[in-house]
Specification:
The protein has about 250 residues and is mainly α. Helix content is about 75%, strand content about 5%. Strands 1-2 form a two-stranded antiparallel sheet.
């Protein structure tokens, strides 16, 4: 799998580097000249754009890999073709998170008008809630990626004219079916409205946290999704080995 991962980085290196250079350039050369508050909006938009672009790159990398004939000649298991782009995206996301953390610390130390830690303390968001929210977000991204991979493999199992449409339909069918079953068995999935609460007063908007409480249903829902994810990965590997046309 490391051979595949190395090849993925080598092929996408120029695009990844261009995204990071553009991101850093915007924060250094553009943000200081924006009006008060504009640098925060620019940071949110730019980091979100790079994150979305990286996610799209992961999906495109998986699609290109399973359809490339030369990748079939590499002596690795079919599972590696699924895990390699996931690991590729995880490393890119980790690098982006590290850059964002450094940027946040620098901004907090240089800007005396905004105390980020004071804002977090006032909102009632404790450390455990932050960790739980981060882990929940990462799992949602991973689970979504696995479903998209399976949908791409289903699309690749048919001729190219009808395959993409079948893949799109398969994605919505799979997500709807999983959501329907999960809401029948458990008390529903985690909603952002359950985590944060927004209030607007004359003094401005405030945000408080209700926390991410891992109740029995929440744990059961997570375990259910893990089991489903394993099954989806197994089906994806089977389609890549037996059905996907190259």
């Amino acid at each position: 799998m490391m051979t595949l991962l190395k090849y993925d980085f080598k092929r996408n290196w120029n695009t990844l580097l261009a995204n990071l250079v553009t991101l850093i350039f915007l924060q250094i050369a553009v943000a200081p000249f924006l009006p008060y508050g504009g640098e925060i909006i620019l940071a949110i938009v730019s980091y979100a754009a790079v994150g979305i672009a990286t996610f799209v790159k992961v999906i495109k990398t998986y699609w290109a890999n399973i359809r490339a004939y030369n990748r079939r000649l590499v002596p690795v298991s079919g599972l590696s073709h699924v895990l390699s782009p996931l690991l590729f995206g995880a490393i890119c996301g980790l690098v982006l998170a590290v850059i964002g953390t450094i940027h946040l610390l620098i901004y907090d130390s240089l800007n005396s008008r905004i105390d980020i830690m004071y804002f977090i303390n006032q909102s009632g968001i404790d450390f455990s809630s932050i960790v739980a929210l981060i882990l929940l977000s990462l799992w949602v991204i991973l689970f979504m990626s696995i479903i998209i991979f399976l949908s791409i493999s289903i699309a690749g199992s048919f001729r190219w004219k009808t395959g993409p449409w079948i893949g799109i339909v398969a994605y919505f069918v799979i997500t709807s079916l999983i959501s329907w079953i999960e809401n029948i068995i458990f008390s529903g999935v985690v909603s952002p409205l359950q985590v944060f609460h927004f209030t607007e007063e004359s003094t401005g908007m405030t945000i408080t946290s209700n926390g991410v409480v891992w109740t029995g249903d929440r744990w059961g829902s997570t375990i259910f999704e893990v089991i489903v994810a394993i099954g989806l990965v197994a089906l994806t590997v089977y389609l890549n080995n037996k059905k996907v046309e190259v």
